[in-house]
User: What shape does this take?
Amino acid sequence: MTKIKYQILADELAVAILSKKLPINARLPSVRELMRQHQLSLATVTNALHILEERGLVEPRGKAGYFVKPPAPNDISEIAKVAAPAPHARSQAGLQAMTASIPNWGPAEDLFPEQRWQSLLGSIIRRHPFLSTRHAQAYGHPRLRAELARRSAENGCFLKEEELIVTQGATEALLLALRATTEVGAKVLVQAPVSVLYSRLLETFTLTPVTVHNSVDAPDFLAEVQTILESENPPKVFLLVANYHFPTGALMPLLVKRQLLRLAEKHGVTIIEDDVYGDLQHDGARPLTLKSFDLKGNVIYVNSCSKTLAPGLRIGWLAAGNWRERIAYLKNASASSVNELSQLVLAEFLAQGSHVPHLRKFRQQLKTRSGEYLSILRLVLGNTVKLADMPGGYSYWLPLPGKISVDEIQSQLLQHWPLLDKADTPQVALVSHGLCVNTSIPLTDPLRQSLTAFCFYLRGQY
Assistant: This one.
């Protein structure tokens, strides 16, 4: 049976102790250091240390931390049997550690209207030559906030200009939302697999993730969430991607969105909805957000222009709902403001309606390119593994077989993509026991050959 995360960490530390790599009376890394090194939550690391303490391998010494405890002679052989991890467990732990090396994951640069942005930038500078001498407004330029409210209405989500706060990308918006709604050590409900960004955000505030293992489009998703919320001391915050979750690309059905919102209201749960991928549908209308149905202010809505319009502007925004006053206070306290020139450039782009033809073309290119990648995956792997459809986004996540080792997958990636860091090479990364492929990168002949060869290798592992 596959071991869970805290068991894997406990076993690795036990082996280090029994092999004398950690000698008697040696101090173990701090809880925070173990969280950072292994990309694990506070609860996971704490559980692992408690297991080691129960085995008689470590002991806490006041506020100094955990130290290696001299084991009783008769217990050494028994402890060694319990502590020795299976090769599979080591491999899975290594796979998770590798998620920290995921690149800056974004759509291909050629999909963005670079010349249009340059033209707008020059126009704004000529009309507002003294922007650099003015202080940017804390909550964002009124013109941009007005355009963001208008655009949200186009998408079926009626946000008020006064409830919007402009941030330095979606990351600052998520930080503000988590800081406003949680305290140190609080539980936060998150989806599996958990992205590196979310893991680091939770670690920043020493929050404990409670994972929902069913995908948002799975039949048992709501039942699992309900079970968690009805348990003792449940989380009161749900950090969620309803539209094209990274890395799986899952899209929450409309009915589930309505039911989830009612469930959250019933249990007093605040939902932080990260909608940065929501504009990336491949066909049809843009999917509605949870915020579209939020009549009581229980949803904090987060978005940005980084995945769809202009990554370099670094502009995000949030609609804070019931938490508007608290988040506004934290925003003021941080003394951070967004470059006003960038805000006016984005406001002008939206006001002119330039986003409409751009997004239409953008989505079509994403659909075409992802189709080329999927055709190769299905040609080689179709009879071996069930491949999900890709309704939106630019990432395709392929779960890896449990028996595969980290070293082997690394060597195969380097073998088939020897120029991995070059611009004409698709971005690939190991994310939560799966291979994530950036399908927005143009698929050239060399890349097609690399992907095909790698898929043949994978087929032999299932």
